Amino acid sequence: MAKAKPMHEALPNNEIRRRMLRYFYDRNANATSNRGKKGSAVRISVVKQELKAAHNLTQQEVQSNLTYLISQGWVEEDSVEKSFTAPSGTLIPSTTNFYRITAAGIDKIEGPGEFTMSKFHGIKIEATGQNIITLGDGNQVNAQFSELGNGLAALREAITHSQAPEAEKLGYMADIETIQSQLAKPHPNKSIVSTAA
């Protein structure tokens, strides 16, 4: 009598992401090269195969959660382009994607350290000569509202990394955009701001 196939235990996405990030972290910690069998960067086929063996994750679970980890900046995609000549003489381009943990991903596991950049590193404020400043997130606000503008930029960052559902995040981001667009004016429309707030 054939053995029954074990049921696949569906894990919550956050647990899958934790396991996947730990997989990339361990791979990086044990790497002896940049790419390849013992490399910190690895092809998707190897990721799926090794996560299936270690945690019984399906290809769909790996792919959807890898997309999330990349969009949040915990993992990065590195494309290597090559080309080869077919027997007909045609040059055929080929791209191989590799995936590795980022510094932000390592800090997520280890916690911030001596070399961790501050949360506001890279936020530049430059005057345009018209009492308008450009914040690090690319938004322009009137200089008199710079403190509020920086607060909104920090709020945007917090929402991006929150556990809120994606639909809610999009709604919040749209409201922040609305408020920031009003802050570029010398006299923001208070009713628009209060509606979005």
- Class by SSE composition: alpha+beta
CATH arch. level architecture of the largest domain: Orthogonal Bundle
Q: Which parts are unreliable, with pLDDT below 50 for 5 consecutive residues or more?
A: none
Average pLDDT rating: 78
Strand order, sheet with most strands: 1-2-4-3
Give the radius of gyration: 23 Å
CATH level 1 class label of the largest domain: Mainly Alpha
Task: State the end-to-end distance.
Answer: 64 Å
Total count of domains: 2
Walkthrough of the structure:
The chain is of the alpha+beta class and 197 residues long. The chain has 2 domains: 13-84 and 91-110, Arc Repressor Mutant, subunit A; 126-196, DNA polymerase, domain 1. Helices cover 46% and strands 19% of the residues. It has 7 helices and 7 strands. The protein has helices at 13-29, 44-55, 59-71, 103-110, 146-160, 166-183, 190-196, and strands at 33-35, 39-43, 75-85, 91-101, 126-127, 132-134, 140-142. A 4-stranded mixed sheet has the order 1-2-4-3. A 3-stranded antiparallel sheet has the order 5-6-7. The chain starts with 12 loop residues before the first helix and ends with a helix.
